[in-house]
Specification:
mainly beta; 4-stranded antiparallel beta sheet; 30% strand; binds zinc ion
Length: 67
C-alpha cells in the first residue's frame, strides 16, 4: 500500500521547487519524492528526532546486548 501526501511549504533540495515534495509511505519504507525533478530522498537517512535530548546524558543502566 502506497500513500502519498504533499508536504506544504517544503522545497526540493535538488531543484528548489516549492510544494512539489511528496511524502511517500510504501509499507514500512518512507521517503520523499519531488514531482518536479523526480528526486527521491530516503527519510531513513535523515536524523529522525526533533527533540535533542530528553534523557540525561549519564548512562543509568547497562543493557545486555541484543542478539
Ligand atoms: Zn526537485
Amino acid at each position: 500500500m502506497i500513500r502519498r501526501r504533499f508536504i506544504a511549504g517544503a522545497s526540493c533540495p535538488q531543484c528548489g521547487a516549492v510544494d512539489k515534495i511528496v511524502r511517500v509511505e510504501e509499507g514500512e519504507r518512507i521517503y520523499m519524492e519531488c514531482i518536479a525533478c523526480n528526486m527521491i530522498r530516503d527519510l531513513d537517512a535523515e536524523p529522525p528526532r526533533e527533540h535533542p535530548t530528553d534523557e540525561p546524558a549519564v548512562p543509568i543502566l547497562i543493557r545486555p546486548p541484543k542478539k
